[in-house]
């Protein structure tokens, strides 16, 4: 009996934790980390603010966890795109497109993950995740060099160039302060932007005009 | 007499402020923002810690000011390199080289300016300064399009690709956790790194194999 009780409590605890994470995610997707206040998250999750601090040591720890989960999802999507059929340049282009298009479809969340000034704990996660993207790109570049569709180069260094180019070129367009754009032209603008980023990156890798 | 007194006090105040800034700069160049403790800075500057808070509202404000001054110096160096004689591709290459080589010569300060996880106030400055670099590159790209040495493209977007590529590709090599590198090979490694970054960036811009 005692064991079952504990199991049930554990489940409840896990569910509350998940609800807090989901609601934080919702707040960040809506207005960034800055606007995700603990009282608001607690209200959405239907728990007392004190409950949040029983699950997470601090607001920063909660944010770091949400950052990790949200970014891991994006990393997985990029990894998935890299399994596209075709040679390494086709796979890399699909991965870059995936990254950029997903970001532009969820601009506030993407802004928060890529560039929003946040607590150092989140910044630490950001550095780690940039490495995760670079690892994926590096692998694909090495495959491309093997396949002969990408000239020989330091794949590690080129992979970080890719990560930097795509992330930085999205910062401005994703920035909430630029959201006054005419939404009618938004899709066209986004397509042009994605095209420009991909061209720069693929030219950078291959030295072949596109 | 009263006026002179005030003038003298003003001068003293300005000198103390400058000394605090200089000592903070020294601390950051040595161990990053994280290791720049107020007590240490006060000790170096020969003032009481309370004096620091008479000049700066908070540690974060002091850091933001030092960040601004240090980054503006780097921006000026890049701007200077862009006045090199030659067409826009030569000028841009000189600017990228200037950025990368200066960073590698002062790796801890560069790490702190480019990537060290710091307070949101410093992160805000970082975003602003990335724009400053992009503005410089954009101007040079536009000139290159005019001169005919760079193919027509969205210069704004390409400029942000350049900023991202060069900054991100330096993050790993500048990171204090990677400083165990054999120093004998350091110069060769750095030259190779700078070469790779410049090749990626210039190929990205021009689509011409280098």
Automatic annotation (TrEMBL), chains A, B:
Keywords: DNA-binding
Location of the DNA-binding region in this protein: 37-56
Gene3D superfamilies named among the record's database cross-references: Tetracycline Repressor, domain 2
Protein origin, superkingdom: Bacteria
One Gene Ontology term of the molecular function aspect: DNA-binding transcription factor activity
Positions of the HTH tetR-type domain: 14-74
Protein name: TetR family transcriptional regulator
Annotated organism of origin: Marinobacter salinus
